[in-house]
Structures
1.
Amino acid sequence: MSMSIAKGPDSGSGVRNQRGTMDDEVIPPFTGNVREYHFTKKDFERVQKLIYACAGISLGQSKQDMVYSRLARRLRALKITRFSDYLDRLESSADSDSDEWQSFINAMTTNLTSFFREPHHFTILREHLARIGSRHSSDPVRIWCSASSTGEEPYTLAMTIVEHFKTFNPPVTIVASDIDTQVLEFARRGVYPMERVEQLSRERLQKFFLRGTGRNEGFCRVVDGLRRLITFEPINLLDAHWPLQGPYDAIFCRNVMIYFDKSTQLSIIRKMVPLLAADGLFFAGHSESFFHAADLIRPVGRTVYRALRPTDS
Ligand SMILES: C[S@@+](CC[C@H](N)C(=O)[O-])C[C@H]1O[C@@H](n2cnc3c(N)ncnc32)[C@H](O)[C@@H]1O
C-alpha cells in the first residue's frame, strides 16, 4: 500500500477553521460522559484527511464518536494520552507502510457483512454461471470479491458455486480482498460464532461447516473444501495498481463504495471495467447507485451492472 501524507499544522493552535469554530475546541461525547482522552475538532479533521488520503474513506461529521472510540483503543495500546500526539506519530512515520498505519486503517473500516447478504445477487450469479458454463473454453470461471471483510461474502460465493457445479472441485477461482488485514485474517481462518451462521439452512450448515466442540463450542469452521476455492489478499481499492489480472467473470464490489466520494468511486470503476470479461458482471451494494458512471457501466439487474463496450449505444 503506498501513501504519501504531508504532516499537518500542530494541533491545539487555536486557529479558527472555515466553519468558524475553534480548532482546539474539545468535542463533547455524544453520550455526555467525560472522555478519557483529549479529542478536538482539529484532531477529527486530521483523521478525516488521513483516512481519505490512504483509503479513500470519507468520514462525515456524524462519525466523531465512532472515530474517538475506535482510535482510543490505539492510544490505550500505545500508552499515548492525547489524540494529537497519536496523529503526530502517525504522520511522522517515515515508512508509510508501517504497522501503525495498518492498525489505523483497520480501526477506521466498517466491516458489517453477513452470509447470503442481498440474496438476489446469488440467484443472478447462478444464472450467470449457467450462461458462461456453456462457453467453449477450458478457462476457469474467475470471480473477484473486492471488499470481502470477514469472509461471509466470499464463502457465500463459494457455497453458491459448489451447489451450482455439484462438486467441491468446480472450475472456479475466487480472489477475496480487503484493505483491512485483520478482517482478512479472520476470513482466512473461517471460524465463526454460531450466531453468525444461524440464518443458513440446516443443509448448508451440514455441508459447509464443522461444528466446534469442547473449547470450540459455540463456533463453527468453514470446511477446507470451501476454503480452498478462495485466495485472500490485501488490496487497497485506492491504489493505482492492483496485483490482479483480468478477465473476471464477476466482480463483487458491494457496500464499500458508500464510504467513498463520487470521484473516488469513478476512478475505482474506471480501473475495474477493463478487468471484467466481455459479459462479466459487476455487483454493487443495495444503497449504491452509479448514475455518474453511466458512460462506464450500465444496469442489467437490481444493483448489477455490465461494462459498456464501444459497440453499446
Ligand atoms: C461494510 S463492509 C462490506 C462487506 C461485504 N462486501 C458486504 O457487502 O457484506 C466494507 C468493507 O470494505 C473495506 N474497505 C474500505 N475501504 C477500502 C479500500 N480502500 N480498499 C479495499 N477495501 C476497503 C472495509 O475494510 C470493509 O471490510
Note: The beta strands are 141-145, 172-178, 191-193, 209-211, 219-222, 230-234, 248-253, 276-284, 297-301, 304-307.
2.
Amino acid sequence: MEQLCPRCHEQQVHKSATSNVGRHAGLIGLLIANSAASYNCPTCGKIPLVEFPEEFQSGIKRKRIFSVLGAVGVVVLLIALLFARELM
Ligand SMILES: [Zn+2]
C-alpha cells in the first residue's frame, strides 16, 4: 500500500522494518510486529498512524483483523490435526 506522507505530502512513507524480530519470534511474533509497525517518511522521520487519513487507517485496521483471523485459523487447524492424529 502506497501512501504519501501526511506532513510534507511529497514523499512516500515506508513501513519500518520489523521483519527480523518477527522471524525469530515465529508466526505470533510476526503478527505482533506487524501490528506494532510504524511508518517512516524519508524527510520527516517516524509518523504515528493517527496522522494519516482515515481511509489509510481503516485499511490498516482491516488488514490487522484479517491477519489475526488468519492466525487463529491456523492454530485451530493445527489443534484439529493433532486431535485427528490421536484418534487414529
Ligand atoms: Zn514527510
Note: The CA atoms of residues 31 and 67 lie 7 Å apart.
